């Protein structure tokens, strides 16, 4: 009888988009998404790099392509993905060393990781892209 009561209390359908995730969970999800995005865009970035080194004409073509606003936004997104993945990776290395595993410390390191990645993206994006 207790088993029947227990099954009725469980949710039947979880709507993952309506559940409020804690900040460390959002950081973890974005860490995975940024890693996948960097991995998928790596061939494009390598092609652009190779093309820029091939000849002065191809360098001018890549430079002109990088001047497009849409390409700049994509490159800024990739720069944010790199900075976020790097900062979150350092946080996970510290967590593996049992540093900052308490609930409040984990929340604080999540906030720090987000803040540092956004500031680094703004500084590097301003210096490299604009």
Automatic annotation (TrEMBL):
One GO term of the biological process aspect: tricarboxylic acid cycle
Listed CDD domains: SQR_TypeC_SdhC
Q: How is the cofactor bound?
A: The heme is bound between the two transmembrane subunits.
In terms of InterPro entries, this protein maps to: SQR/QFR_C/D, Succ_DH_cytb556, SuccDH_FuR_B_TM-su
Q: Which GO terms describe its cellular component?
A: plasma membrane
Q: Which UniProt keywords apply?
A: Heme, Iron, Membrane, Metal-binding, Transmembrane, Transmembrane helix
On assembly, the entry states: Part of an enzyme complex containing four subunits: a flavoprotein, an iron-sulfur protein, plus two membrane-anchoring proteins, SdhC and SdhD. The complex can form homotrimers.
How is this protein named in the record? Succinate dehydrogenase cytochrome b556 subunit
Biological source species: Oryzomicrobium terrae
